[in-house]
Amino acid sequence: MFNTYFPINAILAIFAVKIIFYMSTKAVRVRFAPSPTGPLHMGGVRTALYNYLFAKKHNGTFIIRIEDTDQTRFVPGAQDYIMDALNWCGILPTEGPGIGGEFGPYIQSERKAIYRPYADRLVAEDKAYIAFDTAEELTSMRDQAKKMGMPNWQYNSVTRVTMQNSLSLSSDEVQRRIDAGDPYVIRMKMPRNKDIRFEDEIRGWVVVNTNNLDDKVLFKSDGMPTYHLANIVDDHTMEISHVIRGEEWLPSAPLHVMLYEAFGWDCPSFAHLPLLLKPDGNGKLSKRDGDRLGFPVFPTNWMTSEGELFSGYREQGYFASSFVNMLAFLGWNPGTTQEIFTLEELCDSFSLSRVAKAGAKFDPDKTRWFQQQYLRSTPDSVLAKSLSHLLDASYPLDRLTTVCKLMKERATFVKDIWTEGSFLLERPNSYDEKTTRKKWKEKAPSLMTDWLSEMSKIKEFTAENIELTFKAFISSKDMGIGAVLPLFRLLVTGKGMGPSMFEISEFIGKDECMDRIKLGIDTVEAIKANA
Ligand code: GLU
Question: Domain 427-530 adopts which CATH fold?
């Protein structure tokens, strides 16, 4: 029992505060809700990533929902592309299509029957209305308005009385038209002159007056909800706590807030992420920019139905880890100087409060830098396995492991290790033009023949011994390293630059090294003679 001095009131107060705290902290449930209208742009992957990181950070749930209510924009293959790309990145949902979960289905077209009653409820409560105007009538209305000097005609709280809808027509007429099978949509009845406010986690308070908003269609004549209605109904019924999405959806947020209010539901928190900008900062990074400016804009390759190929990071040779690390930094920073983060580390460090408002400039050089860092920190034996997959020829893994060890500092991608370092396993079939032109002088053949005979005397052909013999050789000739080493390198590797020639020589082995030098002297001489 408490002794008499124990502050029992304080204990009770602490319990009360704790209970209130637990009741007020909603489970974090976030969703990435792409529309399968094409491949996922890297901006979309970043949205998915931030949702994922936020969920993990808060022990929450990350959900994927496919928003395919606009059947006119449906692109076959897009949904599989999206799921495959996220899978490659390691951005794995806890609930979603093909995964399941308590709140499914997770594809809106499979939820079709859910939405109509919600739209009907708003009509019954006079928060939405039925509108019969055909596409032609709307176009002619816009054209007339344009002629009268109003280029931005809207279907809104002022103009709706002049249109064909359940607010302007008698209820008998409305019923007659419905019975006659006239197509109609359901529109939001936007109230007049009302300020809509919400606090965006990234942008702060947003206030928009309803006079600037139109009466958006909520339910279409094809029996499908629009994005707006389906999105709100699903976010509510899937118990989404935070809506984290691209800035392009910010203009829709006031309507969404109004819809929550109309249904009498609590609004989730909103966070609208900054745009991804072109490298020069001039405008949004578009899908055409990538291949035009020489870098991919998509996570993985995408082939259009017309056979046009858009390149992807995966096929270019980027590691998913470096791609994800780079993406995390497009709009967020940890507030420290650390730049290399594993996905787990990102999960620990991520917070919406460190997401910037301003657009994030995409930097292709930095992207390559991340990839270089990841390549360098990957164990040689792991790189060797990837390299082995890339090669047509098969080489022993231990040999490839040393190739990776020698070359990885000079490579960005695994494939570069081979483009730059195939000479380690195969004889050169060309000789660097600049070195041949500038360094291969008249005395080069005899100099290299002398070096060959010195080399033949080395008993234990180790990098250390080769280096000692080479240094003794150049000083006996009274020559500098810069005049002799490039010739040696040219003959053995065909290159003008590369890793330590002594390590290369040890790896290649004495006999092969000597053969290459002999062969090289004749070949380079012949090239010179023909030049
Ligand atoms: N379906 C929308 C899109 O394609 C989702 C917007 C949202 O997250 O609310 O990006």
Answer: Arc Repressor Mutant, subunit A (1.10.10)
